[in-house]
Write a structure and sequence with these properties.
- By secondary structure, the protein is of the alpha+beta class.
- The N and C termini lie far apart (53 Å).
- A three-stranded antiparallel sheet has the order 1-3-2. It has a two-stranded antiparallel ribbon with strand order 4-5.
- Among the domains are: 97 residues, no CATH class; 48 residues, no CATH class.
- The radius of gyration is 24 Å and the shape is globular.
């Protein structure tokens, strides 16, 4: 079923695809297809409970802890295996894996957030005439995945922050459909401990010099500067009761 839906919504050169040519409305077929897939998988799990290796005893213990003392109060349970994405066992299994990493390497050293930019040229070049980036979530997700694998490779190879022991990440989606990822990095303890000088070397809150770093200056000016708000722009979305709800402008600090 998954392969069938992917075939139906795939781009076809030279002819319009009715599944993807209706702008944001085309997302409805993607949502419906995902719902069909989940329903099919859940139905298979429910009909093959005796073939799935799950912890039946744990379900009884959980029911007793919740106050079910009679067998008639429990009803017929359908236990989901940890391989079913999004279920409780899946979440607990991933949580235990993360805690196991902390048990071996200690607390993480870096917390990195990597966000998707719908104006990446890789996305814009693949759009058809009249299409907007939010019309094609398949292209956004594919480009984001490729860039995520590249940054994970750069971090894991040690070319950015030095030798690393472990990397753990979680992908989330915003309400407007753009993905972002939170990355935890455990640095090798053979290097210098995380001190102020190391933090100042990794993190910079200054606007790059347009002559020395023109690309950095353009990116910071476009994506990382708040406002303008205040008396200059009282209609800014951050303005609450005549003041900036994010407390800008803020005083400059010379050091961490």
């Amino acid at each position: 079923m998954h392969d069938y839906f992917k075939y139906q919504v795939h781009y076809r050169k030279g002819q319009p695809n009715p599944y993807i040519c209706y702008g944001r409305l085309s997302k409805q077929i993607v949502v419906d297809a995902r719902a069909c897939e989940d329903e099919d998988r859940l139905q298979y799990i429910a009909q093959n409970q005796d073939k799935i290796r799950v912890e039946y005893l744990q379900g009884i213990v959980d029911a007793v802890e919740k106050g079910a003392k009679e067998g008639s109060e429990m009803g017929k349970q359908t236990l989901l295996p940890s391989s079913h994405v999004g279920c409780k066992r899946y979440m607990i299994q991933n949580y235990h894996d993360g805690i196991a990493i902390c048990r071996v390497y200690g607390p993480p050293d870096l917390f990195i957030t990597f966000t998707c930019n719908p104006r990446w040229h890789e996305i814009l070049e693949m759009l058809s005439d009249g299409e907007q980036p939010n019309h094609r979530p398949d292209k956004i997700v594919r480009v984001f995945h490729m860039k995520l694998q590249e940054i994970l490779h750069d971090i894991g190879s040690g070319s950015i922050f030095g030798p690393t022991n472990a990397i753990l990440y979680s992908i989330e989606f915003q309400k407007r459909g753009l993905p972002h990822v939170h990355i935890l990095v455990w640095l090798s303890k053979d290097r210098v401990e995380t001190i102020l000088e190391l933090i100042d070397r990794i993190i910079s809150a200054e606007i790059p010099d347009p002559n020395e770093d023109p690309l950095g200056y353009v990116l910071v000016a476009e994506h990382m500067i708040h406002g303008p708000c205040g008396s200059i722009n009282p209609n800014c979305s951050c303005m609450k009761k005549g003041k900036c709800s994010k407390f800008f402008p803020k005083d400059y600090e010379q050091e961490t």
